[in-house]
């Protein structure tokens, strides 16, 4: 019995309460990194549109409001890690085969024929996601 108690005291999650809280990335720094990253995977015109969308999101859209809500969510004393509940709900609790439902290469096998190299395929996935988010308008 003593061994089981010692194992619990030194187990995987035994030090969780001593860890610092997971920081929320700064919104403006995140936006700058996003723009830097997208510049390497899209053409100049698409990147210009992306820059405008990010600017609108930060200045006119819901960006600041959502960021404040995230900060409020993260400040809950009962929540040691603001990402944990979303990570659990959105990914780890899935009871479906993850490669078949998460991996775009397996989910959309036609992408390989249409876009033979990985960078073009990644861009096509991003365009598809962006089009979906904008309500079907690819422009």
Radius of gyration: 20 Å
Largest sheet: none
Question: What is the total tally of β strands?
Answer: 0
- One letter per element, helices H and strands E, the order comes to HHHHHHHHH
Tell me the span between the first and last alpha carbons.
66 Å
Quickly give the structural class.
Answer: mainly alpha
Helix content: 55-70%
Unreliable parts? none
Q: In percent terms, what proportion of residues is strand?
A: under 5%
Question: Main traits of this protein?
Answer:
139 residues; mainly alpha; 9 helices; 0% strand; extended
Descriptive notes:
By secondary structure, the protein is mainly alpha-helical. The protein has helices spanning 2-9, 27-39, 44-59, 63-74, 84-92, 98-102, 104-107, 110-114, 118-133. The chain starts with a helix and ends in a 6-residue tail after the last helix. The model has no long low-confidence stretch (mean pLDDT 79).
């Amino acid at each position: 019995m003593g061994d089981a108690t010692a194992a619990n005291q030194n187990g995987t999650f035994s030090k969780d309460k001593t860890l610092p809280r997971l920081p929320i990335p700064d919104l403006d720094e995140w936006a700058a990194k996003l723009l830097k990253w997208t510049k390497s995977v899209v053409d100049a015109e698409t990147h210009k549109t992306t820059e405008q969308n990010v600017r609108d999101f930060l200045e006119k859209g819901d960006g600041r409001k959502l960021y404040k809500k995230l900060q409020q969510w993260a400040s809950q004393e009962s929540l040691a890690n603001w990402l944990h509940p979303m990570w659990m709900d959105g990914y780890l609790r899935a009871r479906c085969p993850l490669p078949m439902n998460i991996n775009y290469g397996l989910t959309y096998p036609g992408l390989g024929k249409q876009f033979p190299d990985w960078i073009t395929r990644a861009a096509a996935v991003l365009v598809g996601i962006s089009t979906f988010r904008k309500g079907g308008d690819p422009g």
